[in-house]
Input
Amino acid sequence: MMFHIHTLRGSFGAALGAIVSLALLGGAYASHPAAPGGARVTGRVTCGGRPLGGRFILFEQIDPGGSTVASTVMADGSFHLGPRQNSGLQPGAYRVHFFRRTTDAPDPLLPAKYLDPRTSGLLVHVGPDWNAIEFALPGPRSDRGPASPG
Output
């Protein structure tokens, strides 16, 4: 059986093209791998149904000697923690709380319990890959009580 050079060249080109196409297509649908600098966390924070922008979100690792990683919460309530913004997070359990730049007055939107990691009650598990976390916090309650009939 005889092979012609142009037939082999065409078959080799088609096979090489298929291999490259499969490699590129497979990479496009692969899951996001863990970054060398730590896991990635994205999410959104609302309080009383409104975005909680203008604050910082802090993730404190529960393990002894664990790290704390912070991110700015944007005006739309979104945040991003990862190797591009900071050192990223190591997989594990974290306490979450918030911090305001101006602490001279009570926060009108966020109940005080969410400003302290010991009282926030927000615990999350960060996996090694991409993590999407949403926090829907209840708004502050009015201290005035029910309105009295006038």
Summary: The first helix runs from residue 5 to 28. The first strand starts at residue 40 and ends at 47. DSSP finds one helix and eight strands in the chain.
